[in-house]
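User: Structure please.
Assistant: Input sequence and predicted structure:
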Amino acid sequence: MSFSSVLHAEWIKIRTLRSLIGSLTAVLLATAAFSALASVGDDGSDPLFSTFFGVSFGQIAAIAFGATAVSSEFRGGALRLTLAAVPDRLRWFAAKAAAVALPVLAVGLVTGAVSLAVGRSVLGAGAPTWGEGLRAAVGCGFYLALMALFAAGLAAVLRSGVATLSILVPFLLTVSFVIGDLSGGVADFLPDRAGQVVLHSDWDGTLGPWTGLAVTALWTAGALVAGAWSVRRRDV
């Protein structure tokens, strides 16, 4: 099968699983809702981050999407059937990664636009400039897609969506903040903290908006390489 055919087959799998469609919907709703709440309570210190504050919660739905899309292959012999149709394991994994990234990127860009519109409406004169807002909206889409792919790569290694979420959710919601408070600038290179620099007006660390996303992309690439190696080397 050609790559486009494999990608089409993987997209059919995704759009027929209600849990995955629900995760994509939650990315938009959670991000927009929490961003609106943060904008209402904004103290003026960083209106751009208040506008996109909900990304910290929307990313949980994004990683759930990535983890579930891959881990579902390891249940009930599904991967065995998939590889019978697509013997080239690396081609299949690349198509799976693309099928994860593209819808999350699309939803993430829409989410960024909605969050920006809501934030500017709520903040009024204190809203971020259009230049900053558009940068953050685009960065929001790419950040969410990268985190979904990061989860997909880890799920391929662990072969379990539950295990993947059990690691990533506490890390993103708790551990990353604790490490950030105690480690000086080292924590700025963690995947979530680095990628979210693009959502800030000002950042005291060494990374900028796009270099921060580049660091997140390196973490994601590492997870995908590990996932591809696992899929290629392990028995089904």
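The chain has a mean pLDDT of 91.
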